[in-house]
Write a structure and sequence with these properties.
About 75% of the residues lie in helices and about 0% in strands. By secondary structure, it is an all-alpha fold. The protein has 2 domains: about 5-115; about 120-190, no CATH class. The radius of gyration is 20 Å and the shape is elongated. About 25% of the residues are buried.
Amino acid sequence: MTLINRNRLDSLLMLSNKRLPQLLTMVKNLIDSTSDNISQIQHYIATSDHQSCQQLLHKLRGSYATLGADELVKHSLQLEHQLDSAQIVTQQSWQHFFSVYRQSCVELHAIISEHSLPVTESGSELDLSHLHTLLKNQDMAACTLVAKNRLQLEQLLSEVDADKFLHQVAILDFAKAALLLQKYLPTDATGK
């Protein structure tokens, strides 16, 4: 089961194009603090400090919601409500939450690693014609393809066009993105 809303995260990463290294560092720091946060939650549980536990769950929920960790957000919210209403939270519920939290971080790490790869490690040359077809067909796979080949696109397109293109894809305006990309296609691909 996928725990990360990939389209939301890819859109965030594309919208944050100019500050991508800082965003990737922030996400890495969130991931790196997982063990400390779990230990802190376990401490709050052991000391019955429900208010501090709720605050930490709320903080995690806010941070990870932006990144598309929908399952983690859902479980965190459920636990917050249970703590708020003084319901007993079972050990099984906590273990399930910790499992979802860890797995979400594993998936996030894999995704940000893809965005950290230099162009030469991305696997293959970007097929602009294929990307153009995906955009014209309003296929969400275009988001993933653009995210994986962001650096290559920045090299192929002018700086202004690359910024516009990445923004159009991030806001899911595929028609405008396809139109902008069209002038970079080989002439046989555009039918000219």
